[in-house]
Design brief:
223 residues, mainly alpha, 3 helical TM bundles of succinate and fumarate reductases, binds protoporphyrin IX containing FE
Length: 223
């Protein structure tokens, strides 16, 4: 029996998959590299240098990050425009999560555009005209100088929080939608696991950002 899959179904599945692989995996790698700042400027700069020395890095970035990101972002906005939030009628947590997934998606769209232009390309006039990636010897200093501006730091805290929420809730959506977690009880338990994972990831992401303005991060002196 031949199974015909509609175009929307395939686009939708690709959207869900791209959120996990490669984007979710990339986020974990990104937080890992950023956490090198906890050990000081030299360790962070070496981590950036190592990444930039990956053979064919430009193609890895284009194929592994930029294309999936643009696809996920643009199709995500299309889904958002078509969305019918019903949380005002039904005050269930899942309805709120549905809306917050879309709101964080919109925040991410603007935040990631700003973040990539700012640190990857150094293209924000008046703020930063040096690419962190292309100047590994000064990477820590470029980020640190910007994060000492309270407004920029707040923008990053909001961006990191929105990203972590979006991924943690997104993992749950993915597991349920792909039929990996079936049944009311397992879905509830997986929900708690995603919340725990999100809290952990948020702490790691914020701590790495703090390390650029406070040596050693939030736990300096304890570890
Ligand atoms: C850049 C702007 C982004 C927009 C506009 C956006 C939008 C969306 C939307 C609307 C959904 C819900 C889809 C649905 O319910 O069917 C979604 C799901 C998801 N997003 Fe994003 N997103 C963005 C970036 C990201 C990033 C950077 C990541 C990874 C860190 C990510 C990971 C996910 C995951 C894992 C899902 C769940 C997939 C599923 O529904 O099964 N998204 N996104």
């Amino acid at each position: 029996m031949a199974i015909r899959l509609s175009r929307t179904f395939i686009l939708r599945k690709l959207h869900q998959l791209s959120g996990i692989m490669p984007l979710g995996i990339f986020l974990l790698e990104h937080f890992y590299t950023n956490s090198k700042a906890l050990a000081g400027p030299a360790d962070f700069n070496n981590a950036v240098k190592d990444l930039q020395s990956i053979p064919y890095i430009l193609f890895v970035e284009i194929g592994g990050i930029f294309i999936p990101l643009i696809y996920h972002a643009v199709y995500g906005l299309v889904i958002t425009v078509e969305a019918r939030p019903n949380n005002l009628h039904y005050p269930y947590a899942r309805n709120w999560f549905y809306t917050i997934q879309r709101v964080t998606g919109i925040i991410l769209f603007f935040f990631i555009t700003f973040h990539v232009l700012n640190f990857r390309f150094g293209l924000i006039p008046g703020l930063n005209t040096l690419s962190v990636a292309r100047n590994p010897g000064q990477s820590f200093e470029i980020v640190s100088r910007e994060f000492h501006n309270a407004w920029i730091f707040i923008v990053y805290v909001i961006g990191i929080t929105a990203t972590v929420w979006h991924l943690a809730n997104g993992i749950w959506l993915f597991l349920v939608d792909w039929g990996i977690v079936i049944g009311e009880r397992s879905q509830r338990l997986t929900g708690y696991a995603c919340i725990a994972f999100g809290i952990f990831l948020l702490a790691v992401g914020i701590n790495a950002a703090v390390a650029f303005i406070h040596p050693g991060g939030l736990l300096a002196g304890f570890m």
